[in-house]
Amino acid sequence: MKKLLLILFLLSTQASFGQTTQREVIGRDIGQIKGLKILVRITDEITGDPLIGATATVPELAINKVTDTNGTIELILDRAEYNLQFRYVGYQTIDFPITAVGDGRIAIRMIQEDFQLDDVVIFGRDPEKNIRSTDMGVVTLSMNTIKELPPFLGEVDIIRSLATLPGVSQVGEAAAGLNVRGGTPDQNLVQFAGAPIYNPTHLFGLFTAFNADIVNDVTLYKSFIPSKYGGRGSSILDILPKAGSISNWGGDLMVGTTSGKLSINGPILKDKISVLGGIRGSYINWFLKALKNPDLKNSRANFNDANLIISAPISDENELTYSFYRSYDDFAFASDTTVSWTNTSQSLQWKSQFTEKLAMNVLGYFTQYDYEIFNQSGFNDFELKSNIRDLGAKLNFSYDFSPKNRVNVGGDFKRLEIQPGELTPSGDEQDILPKKVQNEQGIESGLFFQHEFELGESFGITYGLRYDMFQYLGPRIVQQYDENKPLSEGTATGEVAYTDGEKITNYNGLGPRVSMRYSLSKSSSIKAGYNRMYQFIHLISNTATIAPTDVWKLSDNFIEPQIVDQYSLGLYKNLKGNIFETSLEVYYKGIQNVVEYKDGVNLILQDHLETELVPAEGRTYGVEVYVKKNLGRMTGWVAYTYSRSLRRVITPFEENTINDGEWYSSNYDKPHEVTVIGNYKIRNNISLSATFGFSTGRPVTYPVAKFDYSGISLAYFDRRNELRLPNFHRLDLALNFKLNGTGRFFEGDWTFSVLNVYGRKNAFSLFFVDEQGSPPQANQLSILGVPLPSLSYAIKF
Fold it and tell me: Which GO molecular function entries does the Swiss-Prot or TrEMBL record give (predicted)?
């Protein structure tokens, strides 16, 4: 191995700094100051991309550090000889001896291994981080991991990959959003490059709305949530984009059976400013045309998304990153009604390292989510529009007293504006009247503090406080109701008008966070944690999955913010030199002010949603078991979750009480879930992956009788969510070939996958058809009722 001698210019130019500076340099020689500052930047040998999360180890000092988003690590060393080691998943380990005699820089270029052993590492790059850190329920999936899972119609799916982990589920095939530990989809904050995304799916949940070639990694917080995050009750999903190369131009191209994508990255200004751009689009209509169902055959579906990332490491201490993201969908059923939705977000981030210990992170963003419905049947044509705007900023300071003692303080601010719905007739002859629901606006802000430290080798603790504030603002006309009667249009007593910006109501609360770790040995530990979260925005929906027509609603003087208290306890154990990771976690969540809906509710174009909703109490609890194999020809994991998600509605008015005030299953209550993931390396360039999932069927409410009223046949429903759909199970397979040709364009990955290998007709829902003179007939809707093959080809250039 080569020997590196780091000799500072400071040593050769001491005279120019004057007498004071010379004494400081001499002070270094006799150990009077803390150490030498060594900056290490780690990049990919081929592309020049920074390797985020690579590990640098100094065995002589027992130091382990991980690179930041610029691929940089700062080491503080004494004058001595060291044997540095650099590791990154899927790359060859580098041993790098140095003799440190002054401040300096090291550039490390790592090359990928042909045989990648660590593709399914979940808890970050450090194989012992799950044991030594105070983190609970923090899951980081690298793109290498996600790409090993069977794709959906040739597309790598970020959201569905997370649903293979314990405590994370979806209500069914083609379901949008995630349900984390029995929570609702709106209780998850999904953010891309720091900006919130309100509908993270394409085609009603069939595809994830994020281009995997743009994403670096995905982190899900579902147990202990750092105090810098607020505004949601169940989880935080933080999606971090890649940075382009500052040295070389390159890109990725993928062509699949139903969609394709292209990304290009390189230096705008060599070694200073990089750009990464990506586009992605679908051509799924040929698939619909091949179906036998005439309605689907005459339908059309399209989606696309685009990204632009500009990174400017303007100095060793400062970096600016700009991110633009846009996604678009439209779906036309039988060519008369078109549903479309669009996500647009922009963010600008400034990271600054003021001193060796003090760092700052500032981020500003703007997000807008729009949806539209067009009816073009020729009779009563209309257009229905809605949107939500989110403008915010975040500030975070971190101070490292030592590698094992860190403090974070900061705050965030956002302004939310919601247009719940505007109906506009179109065409010449209309029986529809135009209508616009009142706009909503509010200001949400928070201040936070967090302290992370270790006491010896056995005990570590992270604790923090977050103070959340929310103001609901005018202009708005607020209806008043008789206090002795349930809220309804018939019990309204008057109205109060508020001017623009006038405070209608406000809420605030203190949310403590704590997570503790006690190490039983070097390979095992026990952790316990507690969170309190406040949520001031609600997704008003009477369906089990996110739909474009769902209504987002701010907390007001009728609908109070959700308050979620979560308690967690976990046992973590690594086996056989970290080849196996195991964990057992138990949790309990109590939820105040969760929103439930009345029977027969009408949510569309509703000016007074409070008359259609009732406040509920929620609780979820469960056990999560996780076993993962990191190394070897066969890798993968097994996840089992037992969980319950329950609701209770008790009101002073009998007509608003649900199920006689008893606890009942929420729409997301699936007691048993099992996921088995396997990836087998047949050869260095051939791998076979499989995913098997099983879960209890979700709760549903069926009509128990029907009766005729004035010649109209009506269904009678008894108790809510008393029955269940059939159990869900499915097997997916994928075969991946890596081809090595004589040129770059002859090198690539072929992926052949089959979803639902044995053709299981899993029920997404049941509906009833009422035929004259006979009992209602039950019909089952299955999204994937047959084996579904796909083929894709991807290359790097």
Answer: siderophore uptake transmembrane transporter activity
Q: Is 705 a domain residue? A: yes
527-538: per-residue pLDDT in tens?
Answer: 999 999 999 999
Domain total of the chain? 2
What the block records as the tokens of 579 is: 């080849």
**Same-domain status, 713 and 627:** yes
Query: What is the residue range of 104's domain?
Result: 4-110
pLDDT tens, residue by residue, 220-250:
999 999 999 999 999 999 999 998 888 889 9
- The stretch 697-723 carries a mean pLDDT of 79
Residue 676: name the closest of 662, 660, 689, 693 by CA: 693
Identify whether 117 is part of a domain.
no
Q: Helix, strand, or coil here: 66?
A: strand
Residue 507 tokens read as 């809420």
Here the contacts of 351-357 (C-beta below 8 Å, separation 24 or greater) are 351/68, 351/69, 351/70, 351/318, 351/319, 351/321, 352/317, 352/318, 352/319, 353/74, 353/316, 353/317, 353/318, 354/317, 356/37, 356/74, 356/76, 356/400, 357/399, 357/400, 357/401
24-28, 335-339, 499-503, 665-669: which range is least confident on average? 24-28
Prediction pTM value: 0.82
Domain contains 120: no
- Alpha-carbon distance 755 to 732, whole Å? 4
d(CA 53, CA 1): 24
Count of CB atoms situated within 10 Å of the CB of 70: 19
Residues 180 and 238 in one domain: yes
